[in-house]
Amino acid sequence: MADIIQLLPDHVANQIAAGEVVQRPASVVKELMENAIDAGASTIKLIIKDAGKTLVQVIDDGKGMSPTDARLSFERHATSKIRSADDLFQLHTKGFRGEALASIAAIAHVELKTKQENEDVGTCIEIEGSSIVSQEVIVTPKGTSIAVKNLFFNIPARRNFLKSNTVELRHVIDEFHRVALAHPSISFNLFNNGSETFNVPISNYRQRIVNIFGTKTNEKLVPVDEDTEVLQISGFVGKPEFAKKTRGEQYFFVNDRFIKSAYLNHAISSAFDGLLKGGTHPSYFLNLTVNPQTIDINIHPTKTEIKFDDEHTLYALLRSAVKHSLGQFNIAPVLDFERDATLDTPYSYKDNGGSTPKIEFDRNFNPFKETGSSGKQTTAFKTQSSNSWDSLYVGLESKGNDFQEDFGEVHFESEEQATSLFDDETQAEQVHATHQIHNKYIVSTIKSGMLVLDQHRAHQRILYEEFLQNMTVKEASSQQLLFPLQLHFTPQELVLIDQLKTDLEHTGFVFSNVSKEMVEITGVPVSVPESEVSIILEQLISDVENEVPDSHFSATDLLAKSMAKSLAIKTGQSLEKDEQEHLVNRLFACKEPNVSPTNRRTFITMSVDELDKKFI
Ligand code: ADP
Ligand code: MG
After folding, report:
1. Which SS3 state, helix, strand or coil, does residue 153 take?
2. For ligand 1, what atom is nearest to the CA of residue 31?
3. What's the pLDDT at 344?
4. Cβ(65) to ligand 1 under 6 A?
5. DSSP state of 477
6. Which of 190, 308, 525, 596 is the most buried (most CB within 10 A)?
7. What is the mean pLDDT of residues 358-366?
8. From residue 185, how far is each of 94, 116, 202 by CA, in Å?
9. Residue nearest to atom 21 of ligand 1 (CA)
10. In a mutational test of the pocket of ligand 1, which residue from 35, 61, 110, 111 has the highest number of ligand atoms less than 8 Å from its CB?
């Protein structure tokens, strides 16, 4: 038989390599910025169009390339950074594989302009899908500019795979943050569609963090410094009370390289043990310096995971360093802070954070009616206007209410019952008692047998329909705050809030000001306790950022979903009998009671027949 194995042509091999290196515009951002750093730049500009899909350009003032190097830089495995395998364990540069430019040039239109310091003229090379289109002598400043246009122009499948601009831009900004945080001694600019989004000058590490995440961050930072033989740790952790629901601000840098490590992350979380409210994550910005010989960076295509020789020791050192810093900060204000009243306050939530949320309800309250009660027994969770989180959940602890404790009867309202659950039953269905199991499910008897409902999903459905109704049909009612609420966000989070402002206003939010660093809120929807506002907005931002492009994004819908998710009764929460019954009743008054807003089943039923079968 004839031989069948052939060497792949270079441009095909490069395209395959590109699959590893370049997943999305943010990957290009990372590779180009890292090259600029390796070239010794002190100023790096990143220019983005259409979230990087149309253009990613990085301009640096580094050492530039000779005409021959400029040409060679696009060859695969062409690198100036290592010469032998041994060098892999002595790395002081970001790059070393010589793969990035070759990969990028295989799947985009690339224009490189570069000039070395002592030369009069530089080189311009244009390359498209691995073929050189032109190479010219040009006049250009010292340093290098690489423009990557029309990413994946020759691989439509990959191009279609890219997410919406919002999502891709989020990835680009994340990458920009990572590089900028690792290098405070370099100044960075980011221009997005022609406007400057970030301008971070050369500064110390604390200022760098503040320049990226906003001035309000300053007071949240607790310094961490530890110097041992095997490891130096420097940087900051966020004070526990500022811990976020999302894992956004968690950064490890090892020898100036951003890395992900679930193991080291665990070390930090365990140092925060007992200091955090449930479901929140601490922020941290930590630089670890280790001997390059004790790590292997070559285990992951994007080099974001590395292998440590002695992970256990690092874990222990990191945990104790963070614990130590938190301890110090707990006892006395750390000197390098501006005096801040919050520093002198001991953690109060340690004692009161565990109080059980409660629910109050009002039999006559109907959120779909403008005024007054209909006289019918329409049950609803009371959405009321007192100003604390407790307002939504009042009364769980106190047993002293006059709710019927016996297994009384609760009636479904026949005309609002939009479900086929009860078959041909048009008469009001009777629910005989409810029972909560594992603080998660509510079981109830129905005519045909038994109903089991997921309390969290059911309440999400109820709230979701309520919010949608408020936003689309009727004028939302708003409760005026006594004192305006000022919430600080990062600049890009504020861009999102600004985009959603009109929709938020329809739900009852009143904004008196949206600036570059904060929002001022003077009114909130009646169903939203003031203390939950920042959590709701944070959740919303994270939901918008993770929005999937083909989900027919509608801001209103997303907002309603997000708020329902934030405010719904959680799994694990114990409910009084009446609250259970009301949940059941309200769910079946919904338009689509069968599924949660995210399309998950809200309840199941089991008929007596099915039960009988189980006992055979
Ligand atoms: P690597 O960074 O792994 O060496 P790349 O494909 O990213 O591989 O780059 C190839 C080579 O091109 C680098 O080794 C470097 O010599 C040169 N180079 C790339 N970008 C720049 C830049 N911005 N300034 C100077 N030289 C650069
Ligand atoms: Mg590189």
Report:
1. coil
2. 7
3. 32
4. yes
5. P
6. 525
7. 42
8. 16, 22, 5
9. 35
10. 35
- Distance between Cα 29 and ligand 2 center (Å): 11
Cα separation, 324 vs 28, whole angstroms: 39
Going by alpha carbons, the residue nearest to atom 13 of ligand 1 is 79
Residue-averaged pLDDT of the chain: 79
263 alpha-carbon distance from chain centroid: 20
Burial of 529 (0-12, 13-18, 19+ CB in 10 A): buried
Ligand 1 pocket check: which of 34, 69, 73 to mutate, most ligand atoms within 8 Å of Cβ?
73
- Strand-strand pairing, 232-238 and 441-446: unpaired
Half-sphere exposure of 606 (CA within 13 A, CB side): 10
- What is the CB-side half-sphere exposure of residue 403 using CA atoms within 13 A? 22
Side-chain-facing half-sphere of 595: CA atoms under 13 Å: 5
- For ligand 1, whether the C-beta of 108 sits within 6 Å is no
Stretch 474-495: mean pLDDT, rounded?
81
Sign of CA dihedral 419, 423, 429, 430: negative
* Index of the ligand 1 atom closest to the CA of residue 98: 8
CA distance 327 to 437: 40
Take residue 558 and report the two structure tokens written for it: 């997303």
| Model confidence pLDDT, tens digit, residues 378-414 | 333 333 333 333 322 222 333 333 333 333 333 333 3
Q: What is the per-residue pLDDT for 356?
A: 37
**pLDDT tens digit sequence for 174-196:** 999 999 999 999 999 999 999 88
- 605 alpha carbon to ligand 1 midpoint, in Å? 63
Atom of ligand 1 nearest to the CA of 104: 6
CA of residue 22 to ligand 1 center, whole Å: 16
Please name which of 61, 190, 75 lies closest in space to residue 114, comparing C-alpha atoms.
61
DSSP-derived 3-state class of residue 92? coil
Indicate the top mutation candidate among 21, 38, 61 to test ligand 1's pocket, ranked by most ligand atoms within 8 A of CB. Answer: 38
Q: Which residues surround ligand 2, an ion (CB under 5 A)?
A: 35, 95, 100
Q: Which residues contact 415 (CB under 8 A, 6 or more apart)?
A: none
CA distance 166 to 607: 47
Q: What is the 3-state secondary structure (H, E, C) of 560-572?
A: HHHHHHHHCCCCC
DSSP three-state, residue 321: helix
Whether 80 lines ligand 1, by a CB cut-off of 6 Å, is yes
Q: Which residue, by CA, sits nearest to atom 8 of ligand 1?
A: 98
Q: What is the pLDDT of residues 94-148, one digit of tens each?
A: 888 888 999 999 999 999 999 999 999 999 999 999 899 999 999 999 999 999 9
Full-model pTM: 0.61
**What atom in ligand 1 is closest to the CA of residue 100?**
6
**Smallest CA separation from ligand 1 atom 19, residue:** 35
